[in-house]
Every structure is written in C-alpha cells, then in structure tokens.
Amino acid sequence: MVLVTGCGTARRHPTVCVRSARPTLASHLQVPVSAVSQVVSKGGNEMPQCVLTATRPGQPPVRVTVNLDNGPQPYFRLERTAVEASQQFGTERLYAAPELIMGLGLDADWFPDANNVETTNGVKLITATIAWPGSSEAQRRALSVAIARRFIGRIHHNPNAGY
Predict the structure, then answer these.
(1) 54-61 contacts, C-beta under 8 A, 24 or more apart
(2) Residue % of the chain over a pLDDT of 70
(3) pLDDT at 87
(4) Looking at the predicted structure, is the pLDDT value of residue 76 above 70?
(5) How many CB atoms lie within 10 A of CB 51?
(6) What angle in degrees, to the nearest 10, is found between the helix axes of 21-29 and 137-151?
(7) Most confident range, picked from 2-11, 126-135, 149-158
(8) Residue 17, Cβ neighbours under 10 Å: how many?
(9) Cα–Cα distances in Å, from 99 out to 27, 55, 102, 135, 140?
C-alpha cells in the first residue's frame, strides 16, 4: 500500500487578461462584447501577454496585444526606450518621436511608428500594441491608452524599489 500526501499552498498565477479589457475594446469599436475574443500567449520577450481580437462585419479584425513584462527596473527601461526613440542622428528625422502621455501609470509614452503605448505601474512594463487597419493614428493612440489603463493595477510609487 502506498500513501501519498501533500502539503503547502497552491501557487498563484498572475492574471494576464483583465476582465475590463474586452468591454473597453468593444466600446471603442462599437461592437458587442461577444465580438471580442481574448487569448493568453507568450510574447517574443518570453513574457505573458493578452491578445484581444475584435471582429466587425465586413471589416478587418482589430487586434490589441498587451505584453506584461515583469522583468527588473520597468520604469528605467521605459525611460531608456523613450530617450533612445527620441534621439535624432541627422538633420532629418527618419521616424516619429515618442509622445508623452500624462496620467497613465508612473509614466507613459505613445510610440507612433510601433503603434503602441508603453507604461509602467512600477512593477510591470506594460506595452499595448494596436493593429487596426484603416484607422487614424489618433484612434490607435486612444485605444491603446484605454486598454493599457485597464492593466495598470496598483501603482508602486517608488520605481527604484526592488519588487
């Protein structure tokens, strides 16, 4: 006879897709929430991401990919990315500079050439990337900000603290 016992606590897995993301995307596109699907996957950086896809009759789908990078120093990495993207090495700018977004996380920037917003709550670097064929830059920016806002969670005001 073999007796198997176990003790300890169940490991908590972080939430990747937040409940309010699907309704936010549906509202922006004026489609029912049932037209928005979500899938959890792993990004090219090996970090978890939530992929939201909205289907619209007679139009191409809209996809929002939210990558949740829990690597070290998210605030520093966000700042470094914005500074590097702002640099100009000649008289003519070859790509659009990032645009500061006030009131989103500890800091946030819109990167027009990448169609994404990057922000942080001090623990995670959150990147919301938009694929919306036929939309304007203003529409993509507004949608990425609205979606990223859903993933911020609690703000950790000391971005240099070791979490």
Answers:
(1) 54/25, 54/26, 54/29, 55/31, 56/29, 56/31, 59/133, 59/134, 60/133, 60/134
(2) 85
(3) 80
(4) yes
(5) 18
(6) 160
(7) 126-135
(8) 19
(9) 25, 29, 10, 19, 13
Angle at 118 between CA 85 and CA 14, to 5 degrees: 145
- Write the single-letter amino acid at 156: H
Contacts of 151 (CB under 8 A, 6+ apart): 18, 21, 50, 66, 68, 124, 126, 128
The answer to whether residues 101 and 108 touch, using CB atoms and an 8 Å cutoff, is yes
Which domains are assigned to the chain? 21-86+97-151 (3.40.1000)
- Alpha-carbon dihedral angle through residues 139, 145, 147, 153, given to the nearest 10 degrees: -170
Q: What is the mean pLDDT of residues 114-142?
A: 96
pLDDT of residue 79 exceeding 90, the answer is yes
**Residue 107 pLDDT:** 94
Q: What is the DSSP secondary structure assignment for residue 34, as one 8-state letter?
A: G
Residue 29's Cα: distance from chain center in Å? 18
Full-model pTM: 0.85
Q: Which residues pair with 160 in a beta bridge?
A: none
How far apart (Å, rounded) are the C-alpha atoms in residues 76 and 118? 12
